[in-house]
Structures are given as structure tokens and as C-alpha cells.
Amino acid sequence: MKIGILGASTMGTGLIQICAQHGFDVVYRARRHESVTSAYEKVAANYEFMISKGWLTPEARDESLARISGSVDIEILKDSDFVIEAASESMATKKELFRQLDEMCRPEVILATNTSSLSITEIASVTKRDDKVIGMHFFNPAAVMKLVEMIPGYNTSQETIDFAIDMAKRLDKVPIVVTEAPGFVVNRMLVPMMNEAVSIYAEGLAKAEDIDMAMKLGANHPMGPLALADLVGLDIVLSIMDVLYEEFREPKYRAHSLLRKMVRAGKLGQKTGEGFYKY
Fold it and tell me: Would you call 113 helix, strand, or coil by DSSP?
């Protein structure tokens, strides 16, 4: 089976890695030539790390890398048997990409979106196969995190749901089926917590390190909320908060002004080298 990955940023790269590692041929599309190269190099580096830990053999690395090919041309996805879109968290972007995928892919091909908060039904509405569109929300880092939220749209068929669940299990993930709603399950709870941590920081109640330490030692979280926001990307956190607020219109889902200001300043966390911490 050939899996197409649309997007080669952090999440897309993680999906490329695990799909190839689990025996699937992988084709991926990135917007820039340098992103095509850097995604492949990052996957190769991750495999090297796994070899150093004894989790992967050199032979398995070579076989996995041989299954991967990328391009800036979206036509590389044309012959895919299954596609996972992992582009930016923008409804307009995703709808345009799904229009293109719907036109080029065979009618029977299931199209999944890795959206972390957006409506599957709205994304599917631009296609002629809304029964074959589903949300598969992987978590960062995709190669490590076990959970996948499976989100059917209004017209998603049971056959599509069953197929996506089976695919998640073949990637050694644990799928849960979630009724479509803003933020789904995890981000509906988690992202407002990160936003509240931004509020506490902005009020000067504690330093970033101490806010994170409080949740690590006081709530047994493996990572503090501000460090987690940096890992996820402050632009993604803001985008999800905006989706929650737009859908629910409740004050508790209003993004803090400091979060918005940091995104405008390009301080997005680990991917830009600075957020609440410097990297």
C-alpha cells in the first residue's frame, strides 16, 4: 500500500517516518524544495537515533528510507491508496488542498486530515467523496505518541471509519472515536489549560519555569503547559483557541492577548527558536 502525506513540517515528517517504518511505501509533498530535502534528512536522523538506542536495525533503516520519496508537485500523491493531509491549521488551506486531492485521487481512496480542531464535515464538503473523508488527529511527536483521535464527519461512512481505525492500529497507535466537535477531546481540555498558563505568566504570578514546575510536580504532568505550548507551536495553540471561541462564543475560550502578540512577533516556540523559552 502506498500512503500519501500532504505536508512535511513537524507532524508530516513524523507521519512519513512511522508509515515507512511500518512497511508502507510513502510519497510526500512539501511546498518548497528545501522542505522536501529537510524532511527526508530529519527522518533519516530519527532512524539513526533509534539505531543508537537499539530500537531499529541498520537494515530496517535502509529498507524504510528506500520506501520514501518526496516532491513539491502535489501530483506525487495521485496514485496513493490512502492520503493523510498534515498541512497548516487553516480551514481555507485545507479546503483548497482537499479540492485538489478529490480531483486527482481515485474515487475509492480515503482522505484523512490531521486537523487538531477544525470541522471534518466542512473540509469534506468541498469533495465529491464526503463519505470517504475522516479526521485522524495524531499527536506530536507522531513517532512516539500512541493516541490517534478518529473524527468522522457528518457523512463519513462506517467503512471509512473501520479502515482508518485499522490503519492506526497498523501504525501501532491506539485509536479512539470522537464525535465531531471543536477541539475534539484532548485539545478541548489541553489548549485552554495552556492559554490559562499564559494568563498566569502575563499577570506576573510566577516565572515560566515555576509555572511549568508547579504542574509537573503538583499535577504529575510530564511537561509543563508553557513548555508544551512551545513544543506544539504558539501559532497552533492560538489557532485552536480561536476555533474554540468562534464555535462556542464563551469567554473561557478567548485567547490571551500575550499569546496573540507573541505569534505576531514570530516567537512560536521550538520551531522558531524562541517562545516562552529560548532554544
Answer: strand
